[in-house]
Amino acid sequence: MLLRIFRSQSPIQFLLILPLFFGLWYSSFGNGIIQAPANFDTGLYHFIFNLISPYPVLISFIAILLVSLQAIVLNWVLIRNNLSLRNNLLPAYIFILLTGSTHSLTQLSAPLIASLFILLGIAELLFMFELKDPFTECFNASFFITVASFFYFPAIFFFLLIWISYLVYRVISWREWIISFVGLAAACLFVWFYFFWNNQEMVIWKSIKQFFGYPEHFKVQLSHSAYIIWGLIALIFLGSLSNLMNHINEKVIAIRRKYWVIIFIFLIAILSFLYANQQSGYHIIFFTIPATIIINYALLNRKNPRRSELFLWILTIAVIISRIVGI
Asked: Cβ(183)–Cβ(156) under 8 Å?
């Protein structure tokens, strides 16, 4: 029934998403919980934390706004790139489920803010395929991802995605490669000017030194309940990834290469997770983007729609139960 509604492209989709969103974020709204600055949370997040920490309702509103924007942008990007059905809100539904699966993901945090800019960078990389001179897209992608790193420095790993996308798209022009560094430099200059103006130009430098000098890596800190719900999500994701890999060569070149870029997003998220440490519960947000895209593909393209319907119900019920028991 759920999947049939999304396949029908009916306005009833909104009636499914809105109550779900309200239910998953109801317990978090107004509690004012915000992730305290920790390792690798760079200067911009410290500034935001100091600015809004006294206002609990504003904190909750910003967290909900960030998730809503990402759900809308991701849904639109997939449709625009022919990676999902038109007038279909299934990607937004899945994204809201994943981001609402644990209590930590519903809180305002540095990774949540950074993920919005990473998503904007990913959108630019997907749009650039088949463009004759994708200079603007190359610049925007590097600019957005660099800005993301100024909120949460491990996001800088996603800068690798730009060069990997060039290789996947077989971009051989030196201009695009140079422009990626120009976008990085522009973002660095913009942020550095802000901190220089406020006599805090050493903040970013200290964060970078801490990042490369931090002795503990891959020290995952999640609750037992979070392991359970994300273990289930991982199983659904791996099944969906297997389905995609079995049929990826059947797609036209444009779709095939874009899905390869999405797979590399997942691999880079794993790489960046090595530096999550005590922020593991917040860092999971980086997995929600590739997981949403690949699960959405499998649900819409399985030959057995009943199996897809079952997986969607299992995912929905599991997330709701996880929030009821208070993960």
From this structure: no
Question: How open is the CA angle 61-97-119, to the nearest 5 degrees?
Answer: 70
Q: How far apart, in whole angstroms, are the C-alpha atoms of residue 173 and residue 178?
A: 9
Name which of 154, 70, 153 is nearest 117 in CA terms: 70
**Which pair of tokens denotes residue 28?**
């978090």
301-307 own/partner pairs: CB under 8 Å, 24+ apart? 301/243, 301/247, 302/243, 305/3, 305/4
Calculate helix-pair angle for 43-52, 202-213, nearest 10 degrees: 120
Residue 78 one-letter amino acid: L
* Residue 34 DSSP SS3: strand
Buried b (16+ CB within 10 A) or exposed e, 3-18: bebbbeeeeebeebbe
Total Cβ atoms within 10 A of residue 248:
15
What's the rounded Cα separation, in Å, for the pair 1 and 316?
A: 13
Stretch among 12-16, 94-98, 104-108, 282-286 having the lowest mean pLDDT: 12-16
Q: Tell me, what's the pLDDT at 196?
A: 65
Tokens of 75: 């849904």
Reported as a pLDDT band with limits 50, 70 and 90, residue 92 is: very high
Instruction: Give dist(CA 288, CA 97) in Å, integer.
Output: 9
Q: Which span out of 55-64, 276-285, 306-315 was modeled with the highest average pLDDT? A: 306-315
Cα–Cα dist 6/16, whole Å: 10
DSSP, collapsed to helix, strand or coil, labels residue 183 as helix
Give 142-166 pLDDT, tens digit per residue: 999 999 988 888 888 999 999 999 8
Taking residues 221-236, report their average pLDDT. Answer: 82
Q: How far apart are CA 129 and CA 125, in angstroms?
A: 7
CA atoms of 170 and 149, how far apart (whole Å):
26
CA 196: distance to chain centroid? 30
Nearest 10 degrees: CA dihedral of 111, 117, 120, 125? -90
> pLDDT tens-digit profile of 160-194?
999 999 888 877 777 888 888 888 888 878 777 76
